[in-house]
Design goal:
Layout lengths: L25 H12 L10 E7 L2 H16 L7 H13 L2 E8 L8 H21 L3 E5 L7 H6 L6 E10 L24
Antiparallel strand pairs: 1-2, 2-4, 3-4
Helix pairs in contact: 1-4, 2-3
Bound molecules: flavin mononucleotide.
Length: 192
């Protein structure tokens, strides 16, 4: 019997499909982040860091991403549409959450575990938002995963950026299609 929890109905909702002028209340945002914060974590390090940009702070984020794009991309590789997309995503979503994982140098918990725990926190965030009627888009362009972005966020070299989660109410009628391979193509049961 399918679960009542909406694991399967969550869909990626791009900022262009969000109601950009409809704010997400601070109270709701905190609830969603609190759900994310209860992800499992090896050694209880709680390695996730959420840098939340709302209202006018999104302009600062858009400016930052555009200049980091120029800084991180060789002139021959720069694509005006990719650069413009960074700003369009930030402007299209009422909330942008930059996600980073902290990895203690020489610590007991591996980088793999800290990144995995942070991904668990992001999945909690995506599902919590979906359950509360919001759409999300986890976006990982190179600039949002770069060392330079971590510095821009004020994080030191022990942090690894893992992209930006955009959040907002989906526009009326938005229902993107998605599909998965049969589970049997990704799962093996052993019985003896
Ligand atoms: C770690 C991670 C990074 C992702 N980065 C991007 C991205 O940079 N651009 C993009 O279009 N989608 C990105 N996605 C979203 C996937 O494209 C999306 O989940 C997939 O198409 C399945 O659609 P669904 O989420 O609606 O089921 C990312 C998803 C994950 C889990």
């Amino acid at each position: 019997m399918p679960s009542k929890f909406p694991y399967r109905t969550r869909r990626t909702i791009k900022p262009a499909q969000m109601e950009s002028a409809r704010p997400v209340s601070g109270e709701l945002l905190r609830e969603i982040l609190e759900d994310a914060h209860w992800a499992p974590t090896h050694g209880l390090t709680q390695p996730w860091r959420f840098h939340v940009f709302i209202a006018a702070a999104r302009d600062r984020l858009a400016d930052g991403l555009e200049s980091l794009y120029d800084e991180c991309t060789a002139p021959a590789d720069r694509k005006p549409d990719k650069r413009a997309k960074l700003r369009a995503n930030v402007r299209g979503a009422p909330v942008a959450i930059a996600v980073a994982a902290r990895i203690e140098p020489g610590g007991k918990i591996s980088e793999l575990d800290e990144i995995s725990a942070t991904a668990c926190a992001v999945q909690n965030l995506l599902l919590s938002a979906h359950q509360r009627g919001l759409g999300t888009f986890w976006s990982t362009p190179p600039v949002a995963c770069s060392r330079e972005f971590a510095v821009w966020l004020g994080l030191d070299a022990t942090h690894r950026c893992m992209g930006i989660v955009y959040l907002g109410y989906p526009q009326e009628g938005t229902r993107p299609a998605s599909s998965r391979l049969p589970l049997s193509e990704r799962t093996i049961f052993y019985t003896e």
